[in-house]
Every structure is written in C-alpha cells, then in structure tokens.
Amino acid sequence: MKSSICNSISFELDTGKCYLYERTVSQYHLETVNGFISTDRFEWTGELLESCNGHTCPNNTLCISSSIGPSTCDIVGCYATSELEPVLTLDQRVYPVGYTLENGCMQGYYSNSSVVCQSDGVWSSFICLPYPRGCDELRQCNNSYEDGDYWLFHQVGGQTKKMKIYCHELNSIDPTAYITLQYPNTASKSSYKYISNATCNVTAFSASEILTKSLGETVFHKISVDTLTLRLVRLRSTFANFTHFTKYAMAKDCTNFINPTCPSLGTFVIDLRNTGFVIQAGATWTLTGKNPKKIDYINFTEGNQVVHGRCGGSCGGCNKNGLYVEINEALQPDIESAVFPVCNV
C-alpha cells in the first residue's frame, strides 16, 4: 500500500493469498465477497500507514514512512512509457531498476545500445535505427565495411526476416546485392545438336557456329537480387563463368528436332540450398526465343530450393519473366556465416 499503483488489497480465505489491485474494490472498511476479504487502502488507519497515509508518491516509487518526520518517495523502477510499450515483454506498469531491454525499438528497427532502467527512474537514452535492408543502407550504416556476406533485413507482411546477402562494391555509391550460391547453378544455350533423323546421338556445333549462335553454358557462383522486392536480377554476369552468356534460369538449344522423340538439349539448374532462399511458389516458365519448340519439364524439388529445367527449339527454349525468391528462415545458414551489421551512430 506504499505504492500509488496499489489502491486495494484482497485476501483469499481458501488459499491464504493476498492480491494487490490498482482499482478500488470496496466501499466499506472490510468487505467479504466470493471468498475474498477486500479493503481499499484509503480505509486504512493512519496508525498502519504512519506518515504514508494518503501519500501521493509517483507510481514508480514506494512511500517510506517515518515516525519522526515526513515520508519519502523512494524510486523503485521506470514507467512503461508509450515509446517502449510495444517492445516490453512483461505486462506491468513499472519495471525495476536494472531491468534491461536488448532492443527498445519497434520491429524492423534496433536501438544503438541496450535500454536500462536507471536508478533515477528514467530509461537510458537510445536511438532507433532501421535495420539495413540493402547494400546501400549497409554502406550508410557503417562505411568501414568491405565486400562480403552480411545479414540484411527484409520486411514483409508486418514481419522482419533476416537474409544472408553478399554486398559487392560497397565502397561505391551504388553497391549491388548477391546471393552466394553453394551448389552449381547453370543456364545454357546448348552447343550440341543431333546428328541424324534416326537416332538421338549428338555432336558439337563447329567453333564458328558456336560463335555466331552464341552457344554455351553459363555457371553462376552468385546471383544478383533486389533486396526490397526479392526479384532476381538475372542478367548480371559479375560472378559467372561463360564463353557466351545465358541468362540465369533460361534454357535453349538450336536443334531442328529431326526426331521428335529426342529430348531438348537446353538445360538450366537453380540450386538455392544453404542460402535461406527458395523460389517463389507458383513460378512458371514460358517458351521464348527464335522458333521455340517445347518445354520438356520444369521440376521443383527440395521444397522449391532446387529447380531443373529442360527446354529447346530451333534456337529457342524457355524463360521465366520476373523470377522471385522467398526467405525461408528454417533453411537459413549458420549465423556465423555472415556479418551481423553494427552501425556507426
């Protein structure tokens, strides 16, 4: 009853437990209802509360009575301020001195320091900063960072999810984001053709044909991504090996399909295992290029982490317009595999 928050007390007859309430519960000195004896603190006599009788101490203090002088209000904690209410984990009005919040900010933001209830009853000061969502924001967050893998953050549906992103050319005004691929990812405009009508035996195009038709396989070690939309930027070839570049997730060939039972020779492989990303559900491929003939198959495995495609035509094949990925937090690599950003304030 020495706290202004406590305006009444109830004693449960069956269990012997006492309960403190912020509201008043009785109009009488003592009232028995449903197995509880209740009383308001304002009904208590001055002898019980001494100089704390009728005190007006703030809610984050306790009234300390004195037999020889006026009572004092001793600070015991900090108010649950409107600024901190969304991130406080306990359902209470006052938090004890020393109570620490690792992050005092709303979802999608972080505090530049821990937030502590200080002995003066005031929360320590802090600044809320947005988690870096892209490599440009990472560069602004800490300009000492160099190219490498970092944990960046994507907001979707009111949730903030972390994602492992490789930031390239961080010292430039326009750094780019990539997903570091852990397994072979390929796209091809096949440099092979069928030999005859009778069989499905293949032979390589001549060097001059490979040059004029821009044939060959592209192997991707990283694939660029727009970190705000999670759309793959499939024409960037910075981290790819090739003689003639083929766009990521595309497959073509230049066969004439003399024997229609022969499979297409153009193939692609998407393999996002150990990246934390999956191909967006419902993705479909369509025919593309000169004289496209057929899509043999587009197979999704490993929970949309892996996609194999086989397509072809007379220098045609298949493509996916607007290829997006999704974050799957259950599939994310170890936290130690990338740097968790620490921003300069």
UniProtKB/TrEMBL annotation:
The keyword Transferase does not apply. Residues 131-331 form the GON domain. GO terms for molecular function: metalloendopeptidase activity; zinc ion binding. InterPro entries: Pept_M12B_GON-ADAMTSs. Keywords: Metal-binding. It holds the Pfam family GON. The keyword Repeat does not apply. This is GON domain-containing protein. It comes from Patella caerulea (Rayed Mediterranean limpet).
